[in-house]
Request: fold
Amino acid sequence: MNKAQLVEAIADKVGGRQQAAEAVDAVLDAVVRAVVNGDRVSVTGFGSFEKVDRPARYARNPQTGERVRVKKTSVPRFRAGQGFKDLVSGSKKLPRGGEVAVKKAPKGSLSGTASATVKKAAAKKTTAKKATATAKKTVAKKTVAKKTVAKKATAKKATAKKTTATAKKTAAKKATGTAKKAPAKKATATKAPAKKSTARKTTAKKATATR
Reply:
């Protein structure tokens, strides 16, 4: 029996094929995660799954007979429960159409490793989703902040350019006004000698009259 056949076998008992597939995936995922983390998953009447460490050793290649060194490793191991063994050996008969291989746990007693692992797995998935959502929000905020800073910098540059242009225009106007006023002063200075010459003529006339 493969996984698809297992799903079909329990589909009628859990309300449909989709629900059966989800149930099988959830159970297998919980068992694998627990064993990988070093926990022991025990199901009364069925068996237990656990992680076993194997030290480094020497083995022989069955094809060449050569001695080969095997590194230290960890492997999963399943030990069948007594009820399962009795049913397989034939010492107990398997009833028709009933769940007898695994004893049903009493209500409120599902606090074992498997159930705890299922809860942990669900909690991890929820935490991962929240972390992803938070990361997306943070990235969005940073992007908006960068755009705002860029806009402010552009506005400052534009203002600086306008200020510089205005200053240049003002300086040019002042220079033009100063250049226009300068000839007027020269003209005034030129007229001054004319008054002196008139004064000299008047003095000369007075002196002639006196003689």
Observations:
- Residues 109-115, 182-194 have pLDDT under 50 and may be disordered.
